[in-house]
Specification:
This protein has 589 residues and is of the alpha/beta class. It contains 22 helices and 26 strands. Helices cover 34% and strands 19% of the residues. GO terms for molecular function: 5'-3' DNA helicase activity; ATP binding; ATP hydrolysis activity; DNA binding.
């Protein structure tokens, strides 16, 4: 990889905006009133900061495994969260080596399974075919991770099939698309033709026959017709007349979110299938919300999800059309429905930062041709090309330490070679202005003007000046980011995002090595799926799909840290079939 204000008004706002008097106030920024939120610092971190001197840099390599020849790191994570926002083509088959986007307990609010989640897990471990569901933030994916771990301790690799309806959802759960796992192609052929094709492919046929538990995530995007074909295929291929050929089926998702990719709007939903009741033995509803602790926001999301917006909820959404700014200067992430809106927003913010650009091009590899590799890698969060500057705001997309997790927000402080960062850290610890001097050297391509020379003589000895020049000369330089969770700056180096084939061999078919951050000023709703964003602006002006507005707003963690632009009551639309299904589910549970 190459690296080419002043307060005009201040009063308590807890009654109007929520939150405590200590953390929320009103401020005028550039002649516009906005809510100011003072980021809360955990008590244990306050003690830590009081008791020790700052250690300015940490390294991603302290928490990841070195891969052969590449010099980069493989991702090793333990939890994940997944909700969809935009639908990739259903045939975009993908399997991943590890779960690339997780939310740690520190972000999701969940550290262990709740009583209702344990009930679901126990039903599954007892061999029941189960559908479990719940609103965004109820821990469906956290629970799914626990289910997968428990099943893998009991069964061999190819006996547990982990699938999802889209490439991005499959990436989140560490599995494959259902189309790829089942050898279904587009899934439009009849069962006889599909079975004939699968019987000619020993690897796919072996999957069907060896499978004991089939997991399907994001079921809201699975058509009833395809579900019925799969059920019949299982009986044919396994020569077993039991429902789904005797395979235990575990299904999860939220039908209030995005519907299937249908050739017409009258497509049957999966629960409308004639096979649903035959296959699914228990339907279970998760009610406890972990992502949000703000009851007002939880109530708003619940009403939004089912399409019943009360006057109070509408009034609360109207109040969200205001700016929120933060005393630490880190800006909220803006979510847009379309990628071009995201690109324009991030480009504009980068242009506002003076300074030199550092370009990090991903190292991609794979066993197929370039076009197929690109298709396999398109759902990976890490970009093919990452452009950064000193001062750029970024979002961490991998877990690299207990306090540096997916979703951590930070600002780029400098760029330095991996081997030289300890020396730079030592110099900056001794004299913090050295960081500014070093960044001016980067900006001037190593040219030292009179002012820089004077500053260096003030803060550095002759030996240290020579050291700083040596630090500057070594390339490639990696980004150093202040994530604000401790007093550390973190050196980021490339890690590996691997796409793997199905068990038991799980051969890597494509891989990307890239710095594990993205620009955080703007994200698409699609890319934000699975993320928990603690400060958020949602622009709903151009939403184009049912469920998209709900998915976007439900990324937020609190009312005080959320701004919603372009909200209209008409954009909250719910399929009456889904409402009726969940009404019956509530009644029967």
């Amino acid at each position: 990889m190459k690296a080419t204000r002043k307060d005009s008004s201040q009063k308590p706002l807890s009654a109007f905006f929520g939150g405590s008097k200590e953390n929320v106030k009103l401020k005028t920024v550039e002649n516009k009133a906005c809510v100011v939120v003072k980021p809360a610092v955990p008590a244990e971190l306050q003690v830590e900061r009081a008791q020790r001197q700052p250690s300015w840099w940490s390294r991603t390599s302290n928490f990841s495994q070195t891969t052969a020849n590449s010099g980069s790191r493989k991702r090793e994570v333990s939890q994940f969260v997944s909700q969809p926002a935009k639908r990739p083509a259903p045939w975009s088959g993908v399997a991943v080596q590890s779960v690339p986007r997780q939310n740690s307990p520190s972000l999701s609010g969940q550290k262990k399974l709740s009583e209702e989640q344990l009930k679901v897990l126990n039903r599954i471990l007892n061999g029941k075919s189960v559908f479990f569901t719940g609103a965004a933030g109820t821990g469906k994916s956290y629970l799914l991770h626990s289910i997968v771990e428990s099943l893998r301790r009991r069964l061999s690799g190819d006996q547990v099939a982990i699938t999802a309806t889209t490439g991005l959802a499959a990436l989140n759960v560490g599995g494959q698309t259902i189309h790829r796992w089942g050898g279904l192609g587009l899934g439009r052929d009849n069962v006889s033709k599909l079975a004939l094709g699968i019987q000619k492919r020993n690897d796919v046929l072996r999957r069907w026959r060896n499978c004991r538990v089939l997991i399907i995530d994001e079921v809201s995007m699975l058509e009833a017709e395809l579900f019925e074909k799969m059920e019949e295929l299982a009986r044919v291929l396994r020569k077993d007349t039991r429902p789904f050929g005797g395979i235990q089926v575990v299904i999860t998702g939220d039908f209030f979110q995005l519907p299937p990719v249908g050739r017409n709007r009258a497509v049957k939903l999966c629960f409308e299938s004639s096979k649903w009741q035959e296959v699914i033995q228990e339907q279970m509803l998760l009610r406890k919300v972990f992502r949000q602790e703000d009851q007002r926001l939880i109530d708003m999301l619940n009403c939004m999800r089912v399409g019943k917006l009360t006057p109070e909820v509408l009034a609360n959404f109207a109040k969200l059309n205001r700016a929120v700014c933060y005393e630490d200067g880190l800006e909220p992430t803006q979510l847009y429905p379309r990628r071009e809106q995201v690109d324009n927003a991030n480009r504009a913010r980068m242009q506002n930062i003076k300074g030199r650009e550092f370009v990090f091009k991903a190292e991609d590899s794979g066993t197929f041709d370039a076009a197929i590799n690109a298709k396999l890698l398109e759902n990976i969060m890490a970009p093919e090309k990452l452009v950064l500057k000193v001062g750029a705001q970024v979002l961490l997309i991998s877990n690299i330490a207990n306090d540096l997790v997916n979703g951590s927000r930070g600002r780029v402080k400098t760029f330095v070679h991996e081997e030289k960062h300890p020396q730079l850290r030592t110099l900056v610890q001794k004299a913090p202005p050295v960081l500014d001097i070093y960044n001016r050297m980067l900006e001037n391509n190593g040219t030292i003007d009179v002012k820089m020379d004077e500053d260096m003589r003030v803060f550095l000895s002759e030996e240290e000046r020579a050291q700083l020049l040596e630090i500057y000369t070594l390339e490639p330089r990696m980004p150093v980011v202040d994530f604000g969770v401790t007093n550390w700056f973190t050196l980021l180096t490339p890690i590996e995002y691997a796409i793997k084939g199905p068990p038991p061999h799980s051969v890597v078919t494509a891989a990307r090595h890239q710095i594990p951050v993205i620009l955080s000023w703007a994200l698409s709703i699609h890319k934000a799926q699975g993320q928990t964003l603690d400060r958020l602006v949602v622009d709903l002006s151009n939403v184009f799909e049912k469920g998209q507005a709900y998915v976007a707003v439900s990324r937020a963690t609190s009312y005080d840290r959320l701004q919603v632009i372009g909200f209209k009551e008409s954009m909250v639309q719910v399929d009456p079939r889904v409402s009726e299904f969940y009404s019956q589910l509530e009644t029967n549970i």
